[in-house]
Amino acid sequence: MVKEPSEYSLSSYVCNALGVKSDIHTPHLLYLALGKTESERLDNYRALFKAHVETQLLKEIRESIKKGLTLGNE
Fold first, then answer.
1. What is the reported pLDDT for 74?
2. Burial of 44 by CB count in 10 Å (0-12 exposed, 13-18 middle, 19+ buried)?
3. Which long-range contacts link 53-62 to residues 24+ away (Cβ below 8 Å)?
4. Is the pTM of this model over 0.85?
């Protein structure tokens, strides 16, 4: 994997978080709802990636993906 989301070549992160323009990227309605201005949307999108995922939760996510199971509760 990569250390930063912007390093992943197939991700839309550079468009949604850094404002890089692309002919093949169309902003999703949920992305557009992140703010009234482009600057607000960029800031709010980057904030989504600042959260740290605890080691145990990350392990559970990986295990459920490997087994093709859903993860969560009621």
1. 79
2. middle
3. none
4. no
Q: What is the pLDDT of residues 2-56, one digit of tens each?
A: 888 899 988 999 999 999 999 999 999 999 999 999 999 999 999 998 988 899 9
| Cβ within 8 Å of residue 35, ≥6 positions away | 41, 43, 44
Domain positions in the chain are 5-67
Burial-class residue 32 by CB neighbours within 10 Å (0-12, 13-18, 19+). Answer: exposed
